[in-house]
Specification:
By secondary structure, this protein is mostly helical. Helix content is about 70%, strand content about 5%. It has one domain.
């Protein structure tokens, strides 16, 4: 196995394990049973990579051709389930794991996009889809608004990381250094955003628009007078 491939593989497995932890914890927090927790671990651990591989045409996807990915997710989910009392209450540590996974998967996804010869935008999006895809699937299964759409600098950190990967790749840095620096940057941005509660601006609420105070919006987007 070539050194670049070996480095990517190691990063990918570590990121898979980290994200599987966060998926299992989410399953426990919403009171899923043993199977549900393991399914959530697998969904977050490999969901983003599966989505990325399908978009890149890299089929069969890596999670199916290499059973190691699913084995890591299953074992991680089982472990978290059985030590739930020691894990679930340590939310700050779980969020740190999530930030690390976000950084690793952004770097891995961008690198795989580059390997498949997509353009700059495709490389960036490949990193983002890898990093947030599993979490989006998890939140949809939990019937909640995806964290990526509401959380402080989540997808934004991944986007910045994709741009950074492109820049670092153009400087002639060794491949493992480019991966490591990209992952470190994304993780750092996410941690800083959590620490200082940084977030993108949101639209003003209805209460802040007096001229629209008499309007009511239905689920289908239609408005009617109150």
């Amino acid at each position: 196995m070539e050194i670049e491939t070996l480095v990517m593989y190691g990063f990918d497995l570590f990121g898979t394990c980290v994200f599987a932890v966060t998926g299992a914890v989410r399953g426990i927090r919403i009171k899923l049973d043993f199977l549900g927790v393991v399914v959530f671990a697998c969904t977050v651990g490999v969901g983003g990579g599966v989505f990325r591989d399908i978009l890149l045409g890299a089929t069969p996807v890596a999670a199916y051709t290499d059973e190691t990915y699913l084995i890591v997710c299953i074992l991680t989910g089982m472990l978290v389930f059985f030590i739930a009392p020691q894990v679930v209450g340590r939310w700050q540590i779980i969020r740190l794991f999530d930030a690390i996974g976000l950084g690793i998967f952004t770097a891995i996804g961008a690198a795989k996009g580059m390997q498949y010869g997509v353009g700059p935008v495709g490389i960036i999006l490949s990193g983002v889809f890898t990093a947030v895809g599993g979490g989006v699937l998890r939140d949809m299964m939990a019937r909640s608004v995806p964290v990526v759409l509401t959380s402080d600098f989540y997808a934004t950190a991944s986007l910045i990381g994709g741009v950074a990967f492109l820049f670092l790749s153009s400087t002639g840095l060794p491949f493992d250094a480019t991966l490591s620096l990209t992952a470190l940057l994304v993780t750092s941005i996410r941690i800083i955003a959590m620490r200082f509660n940084l977030h993108l601006p949101v639209a003003k609420s209805w209460a802040e628009f007096p001229e629209d105070a008499g309007m009511e919006v239905h689920m289908d987007g239609r408005e009617k007078k109150k």
